[in-house]
Predict the 3D structure of the following.
Amino acid sequence: MTVLETERLRLRWFTADDAAFVYELVNDPAWVQYIGDRGVRTLDDARAYIQNRLAPPYHRDGFGFYLTETKADGVPIGLCGMIKREGLDNVDIGFAFLPAFRGQGYAYEAAAAVLLHAQQDFHLIHLAAITSLENPASIRLLKKLGFRYERLMHLPGEDEAVRLFIFHAPHLNP
């Protein structure tokens, strides 16, 4: 199901048909370094990851991480969306793109659309974002989107600290 469209991108729900893309994305060295190893070793693992991790928030919360593809040819290039994450007070925005599609403004375009979606469709005025301690590209993008660094924190069940960023939608505040 298509959720958002931008000038160059379409953001839609993940389906089992996206297993090959999910396998490629979650095994990208940058994903493993900055997000973590999700244990997806086969296409069956990728289908299970979609079914058990990516799809449930769509029905539970009305939103989730969306497959991000080019409008021109439907090529999957990354994911972008929002989730309710244990240990965070606010809904969390996240994004990841394949190496061939980094540095072209796609992540900014998708994340800006998700921020607007969060505000207009879900009336969220505060959003969170987390990054690993050393992820300069994501940190730059979050700052460009208007997120402000808040503090270091540990998510429940995680050993490594993450950087917490918060977005306040000033035009929606009283």
The first helix runs from residue 19 to 26.
